[in-house]
Amino acid sequence: MIAAAPLSTIDRFEIFEQLHLHQRYIDNDASRASAELYASLYWPEANFTVIDIRQNVFTGPAGMKQLYDYAHSVFPMSRMRHSLGTFVIQGAGEAASVEWNWVVTWREGGEGFLSTGSYFDKFEKRDGVWKCVERTSRVDPNWPAALFQPWVDRQDQTFKAS
């Protein structure tokens, strides 16, 4: 059996760019166009597991759109900024795993850091394109659950589909 070639520098950069686009797109507005742009970063069968003050799994384009809509209609996303932290990309051939850190800060009020966490991803390259097929987000213990609980408690009243 022939081993797959290690990831090239180009492959690594293309995956790295996907990580940055994720952070940029999640900070877009709450429009349907922005939700679809965000969902385009994932393969159609992709799963995204979010583990913070709750645990949810979002699957496929409809799930990614729901995740985006949930974030933008339940939480004050317009006041937040997501940034990419350190990362490690490993893999060979057309499969890669990525562990990366994220940081969320407030855009206003001088309040500084809001929370941090890690993503654990699996990427696949199909027809020359890298996209995420599986992502798990784990919030670090610094998650301000008390700050976010009121928004979660009101989600039935605030959730809006784009």
| Unreliable sequence segments | none
The string of secondary-structure elements, in order, is HHEEHEEEEHH
Helix content: 25-40%
Query: Sheet with the most strands?
Result: 6 strands, mixed
Structural class from helices and strands? alpha+beta
Shape: globular
Q: How many helix segments?
A: 5
How many β-strand runs? 6
In percent terms, what proportion of residues is strand? 35-45%
Please tell me how large the radius of gyration is. Answer: 16 Å
Order of strands, main sheet, comes to 2-1-6-5-4-3
* End-to-end gap: 48 Å
Instruction: Output mean pLDDT.
Output: 89
What does this structure look like?
The protein has 5 helices and 6 strands, in the order ααββαββββαα. By secondary structure, the chain is an alpha+beta fold. The mean pLDDT is 89. It is globular. It has a 6-stranded mixed beta sheet. The chain has helices at residues 9-26, 32-39, 60-74, 145-153, 155-158, and strands at 42-51, 55-59, 80-92, 95-106, 113-126, 129-139. Strand 5 and strand 6 (129-139) form a beta hairpin. The chain is 33% helix and 40% strand.
Considering the chains and any ligands shown, give keywords for the structure.
162 residues, alpha+beta
Topology:
Elements: H1 9-26, H2 32-39, E1 42-51, E2 55-59, H3 60-74, E3 80-92, E4 95-106, E5 113-126, E6 129-139, H4 145-153, H5 155-158
Helix pairs in contact: 1-2, 2-3
At a glance:
This protein has 162 residues and is an alpha+beta fold. It has helices at 9-26, 32-39, 60-74, 145-153, 155-158; strands at residues 42-51, 55-59, 80-92, 95-106, 113-126, 129-139.
